[in-house]
Amino acid sequence: MLVIGIDPGSRITGYGIVNSLGGQLEYIGSGCIHTGNGVLSEKLQVIYENVSLLLEQFKPDCMAIEETFLSKNVQSTVKLSEARAVAIVAGANHGLPVYEYTPMQIKQAVVGTGGATKDQVKYMVRMILHLNGTPQTDAADALSCAICHANTIRVTKAMGQEVADASSVRGRLRRS
Questions:
Q1: Which of 17, 24, 81, 120 is geometrically suited to a Cys-Cys bond with 28, CB 3.0 to 4.6 A?
Q2: Smallest Cα–Cα separation from 32: which of 55, 9, 3, 61?
Q3: Per-residue confidence at 165, pLDDT binned at 50, 70, 90?
Q4: Whole-model pTM?
Q5: What does the pLDDT look like over 74-83, one tens digit per residue?
């Protein structure tokens, strides 16, 4: 199962692609989409177009995306939500199931604690995927989202639950 993880942001959107084969995770690729200094509508278009290109290039089976967290800055939260929305629309337009995870769920799945630091997440992504170097922060966050989904699907299947019905693992897996 090929999973694309997305770490949305209005300035930088990270992406990471992993292949899950029988409990083993294989690194396929990762990087960052930089939107530049344009107006918000132009930034959102850059995100949409680049995510769409990635979906056409890699043809993943599903998308995992980080949920929006509430920050003290309402404007930042709104912009993050909009960046997230265009990535979700790109996935939906390519017929992908889109799964959402909270930052805490992602950290728990990758590091083992919901309070993990960015450095701990990057380190574990590097170890889990046997990478020679450490990915950029946004790419590492996207890879951690993909890892979280792959692990969640593996555990869900092991428990004998139906993966296609995301509501069957309420609180751990939510399909958009």
A1: 17
A2: 9
A3: very low
A4: 0.88
A5: 888 899 899 9
